[in-house]
């Protein structure tokens, strides 16, 4: 039993192939994710180790600093940086933080969420090389130390962003 002719298969595949080509072309440009510097996924392990380190540091600082107030459970969700691919200079970094509360409505038993996210930009100095950023953020106490080329720390930026 023949399900599809070769021509029918091709007619279904062409739009998918064209969509893939156009979406890939739409993503080309001078900047890449830090994970993909200097080439696709080259920085994968090192970057995710760095992100895990920053999330642990955030957790350690959070309760005593910017995580008091309307939300009691702030969580660092994701850290990302863009890099100018040709020069290896970090363009921007952002740490996304989420927080929320869940309450039970006594009359209905419904669980009601109250949640929020913040995208907190890192106060990077101009012309920060990838390696310099890695070294600065991988240290113990990295969130409290000024970022390369800046007199401000990620802690300062988080305080401003979350309050």
Describe the structure.
36% of the residues lie in helices and 26% in strands. It is built from 4 helices and 5 strands; from the N terminus they run αβαββββαα. Strand 3 (89-104) and strand 4 form a beta hairpin. The protein has 163 residues and is an alpha+beta fold. The radius of gyration is 22 Å and the shape is elongated. Strands 1, 2, 3, 4 and 5 form a 5-stranded antiparallel β-sheet that branches. The termini are far apart. The protein has helices at 6-26, 44-62, 130-138, 154-162, and strands at residues 31-33, 75-84, 89-104, 111-121, 128-129.
Beta strands, count: 5
Q: Which residues sit in consecutive blocks of at least 5 with pLDDT less than 50?
A: 1-25
Mean pLDDT across the residues is: 86
Basic shape: elongated
Please identify the structural class as seen in this structure.
Answer: alpha+beta
Determine Rg (CA atoms, Å): 22 Å
Secondary-structure element order, N to C: HEHEEEEHH
Helix content: 25-40%
Sheet of most strands: 5 strands, antiparallel
Number of helices in the DSSP assignment: 4
Distance between the termini: 66 Å
Estimate the strand proportion: 25-35%
């Amino acid at each position: 039993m023949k399900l599809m002719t070769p021509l029918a298969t091709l007619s279904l595949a062409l739009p998918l192939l064209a969509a893939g080509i156009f979406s890939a072309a739409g993503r080309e440009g001078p900047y890449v994710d830090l994970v993909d510097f200097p080439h696709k996924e080259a920085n994968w392990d090192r970057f995710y180790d760095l992100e895990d380190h920053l999330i642990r540091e955030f957790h350690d600082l959070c309760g005593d600093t910017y995580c008091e107030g309307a939300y009691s459970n702030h969580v660092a969700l994701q850290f990302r940086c863009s890099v100018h691919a040709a020069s290896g200079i970090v363009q921007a970094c952002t740490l996304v933080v989420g927080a929320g509360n869940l309450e039970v409505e006594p009359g209905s038993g419904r669980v009601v969420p109250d949640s929020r996210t913040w995208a907190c930009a890192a106060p990077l100095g101009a012309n920060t090389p990838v390696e310099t950023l890695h070294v600065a953020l991988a240290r113990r106490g990295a969130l409290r130390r000024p970022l390369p080329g800046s007199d401000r720390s990620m802690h300062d930026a988080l305080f401003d962003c979350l309050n």
